[in-house]
Amino acid sequence: MYLVFRKENKLMSIVNGSLVDLPSPSSLSYFWNFGSLLGLFLMIQILSGLFLSFHFSGDVNLSFYSVIHMMRDVNYGWLLRVIHANGASMFFLLMYIHIGRGLYYGSYRFEKVWLSGVTIFLLSMATAFLGYVLPWGQMSFWAATVITNLLSAVPYMGGLLVEWVWGGFAVGNPTLTRFFSFHFILPFVILFFVILHLFFLHEKGSNNPLGLSSGCDKVMFHPYYSMKDLYGFFMFSMFFIFICFMFPYIFMDVENFISSNPMVTPVHIQPEWYFLFAYTILRSIPSKIGGVVALVMSVLILYFLPFFLKHRFRSNLFYYFNKFLFWFYMINWLLLTWIGACLVENPYMFLGTCFSIIYFFSYFMFWLI
């Protein structure tokens, strides 16, 4: 009776086809857990952000003190804020691993799935930047000033774009109000693209470690992979809880605990750790417009992978030089992230330029072999 209801009821049949009887390759490893973990942390971010918005004031004179009010006066407000702030870092950590798995195992060959996933990545970066500005601390204010000024590099209409984003002739109250509005709306846009991503994934079917056709060797999603996902939820949730309670401010910049002051520039302006690789590329090029183009292309280049990487086998398991190149690329990405947190002086500037060239050259090498 339950089996009939599960398959014939319209709503239950959708759930059944997505979470129970979904045919999945039998060889999936734990690297395929990160998609579901991203879904979990997206919901954590949306819910915690919703409750934080009840107490946040999007005004330059009140926003910093509204955050202090949340931390000190609201019941468990400190916990909500810590979960939301550290949840963003966990979300990007999972996303980078998820993208890395896709690069290694050739998931970019599924064009619709990959392109929708890269769009989610771009929207997440925009949402995270907007959220970083909201506390209106020193680093928030100056990050907003520096990043929005990059729009001035757009030919002919750069100045107009900057003024439109600012809502005036300088970063101020209209800027914060707009950022708060977009930061609240964009997670629901991301949720729409996640649904689209899952639709394309279920339409095409999951990739597998070998990158070969697995049509003749599939198993039901439940219980084989639902149990794996639950195990992943439990393990990563324990790690996340440990971070939130033992090192709650490990990912936060100390400058952001000071109220914004347009008259005092921080000694070293830097974004959150998950933007550091792109920040290094930006500051490695002396030309402003060249740096902006390189910054944008460092992410947009992911859109082109399905069209210029056409190996016979999807997975790098069959390409030994590709495996070496992939790990070389990963180490270079980590070095770019490290350089982004270093002072803007030699030898870090020189090393940042070298690693930036290697970053783009790695994609060219992927295409050649």
Overview of this protein structure:
It is a single chain. The protein folds into two domains: about 30-205 and about 220-270, Cytochrome Bc1 Complex, Chain C (Up-down Bundle), CATH 1.20.810.10; about 270-369, Helix Hairpins. Helix content is about 65%, strand content about 0%. It is built from 16 helices and two strands. It has about 375 residues and is mainly alpha-helical. Strands 1-2 form a two-stranded antiparallel sheet. The protein starts with a helix and ends with a helix.
**Element-level helix/strand string:** HHEHHHHHHHEHHHHHHH
* Intertermini distance: 55 Å
Rg, Cα atoms, Å: 22 Å
* Total beta-strand segments: 2
Tell me, what is the CATH class of the largest domain? Mainly Alpha
CATH topology of the largest domain, what is it called? Cytochrome Bc1 Complex, Chain C
Number of helices: 16
Q: How is the main sheet built?
A: 2 strands, antiparallel
Give, in spatial order, the strands making up the sheet with the most strands: 1-2
Strand content: under 5%
The total number of structural domains is 2
CATH architecture of the largest domain: Up-down Bundle
Low-confidence stretches: none
Assembly form of the protein? single chain
CATH superfamily of the largest domain: Cytochrome Bc1 Complex, Chain C
Average per-residue pLDDT, rounded, comes to 84
Strand-pairing-aware structural class: mainly alpha
Helix content: 55-70%
Q: What is the molecular shape?
A: globular
Subunit structure: The main subunits of complex b-c1 are: cytochrome b, cytochrome c1 and the Rieske protein.
Binding site for a ubiquinone: 202
Domain Cytochrome b/b6 C-terminal region profile: 211-369
Organism: Oxytate striatipes
